[in-house]
Specification:
This protein is α/β, with parallel strands linked by helices. It has one domain (about 5-200): Rossmann fold. About 35% of the residues lie in helices and about 30% in strands. The protein has helices spanning about 5-20, 30-40, 55-60, 75-85, 120-130, 165-175, and strands spanning about 45-50, 65-70, 90, 105-110, 130-140, 145-155, 155-160, 180-185, 190-200. It is globular and about 45 Å long. It binds S-adenosylmethionine (SAM).
């Protein structure tokens, strides 16, 4: 595991409860609803950087979707296992995804890519493409201005990293995805860049 992942893991292990307690749980229901709508019947999706499983894994399992969540932080994963007992949660680094080609009908990664160094984003998008089934759906978000560095987050050092939306869009396309929707959206007073993509092969 790289040094950044270790820092992020240690940070979330310490702040998991605080982060969860401050989460505005319903602020992107519209995007989750759209994601669920785009999936086939009996879909199996991967939630990358799933955190405490709320809202994403909970929202999707409640709609009959099978969810596998991965995260660096065992403390976050333990919260998720309690909050969403009917989903599967695995400790894994998104830089080293260990799934076979054509495994998932959808991949969602929200409020998580911004903890991964910019230089790794394209490889991660390529891996997402590989492990999605043909016609698979991608939903991601990132921050809206290019930056990379550390700051204090709930009292622990945390790493943040973002391209600007134009570059993120180019990388998602370069990884092979067709774009269904992309926009900067305001949700709960914060602006994020959102992309819905599709693996058309
Ligand atoms: C801001 S929280 C968001 C969690 C959840 N997606 C949500 O919307 O509430 C970011 C999560 O991403 C996880 N994370 C960060 N970097 C990761 C990586 N390289 N691999 C897997 N998970 C990662 C963190 O441990 C943390 O639980």
């Amino acid at each position: 595991m790289n040094e950044i992942s270790k820092l992020v893991e240690q940070g979330y292990n310490k702040i998991a409860e605080d982060y969860y307690n401050h989460r505005d749980l319903n602020k992107f229901n519209k995007e989750l609803e759209e994601f669920a709508f785009l999936l086939p019947d009996n879909a199996h999706i991967l939630d990358v950087g799933c955190g405490a499983g709320i809202p994403t894994a909970k929202f999707l399992t409640q709609r009959g979707i099978k969810v596998t969540g991965i995260d660096l932080s065992e403390t976050m994963l333990n919260l998720a296992r309690k909050m969403v007992p009917n989903a599967e949660f695995i400790k894994m680094d998104m830089n080293e995804l260990e799934f076979k080609e054509n495994t998932f009908d959808g991949i969602v990664s929200v409020f998580a890519l911004f903890h991964v160094p910019k230089k790794n984003h394209l490889d991660i998008f390529r891996k997402f493409f590989e492990i999605l089934k043909p016609e698979g759906i991608l939903l991601i978000n990132t921050g809206i201005s290019e930056s990379e560095g550390k700051n204090n987050f709930f009292g622990v050092p945390m790493f943040w990293s973002n391209f600007n939306p134009k570059t993120t869009l180019e990388l998602v396309k370069k990884a092979g995805f067709s774009i269904i929707f992309e926009a900067v959206l305001e949700r709960g007073g914060e602006y994020q860049y959102w992309i819905f993509g599709k693996k058309i092969k």
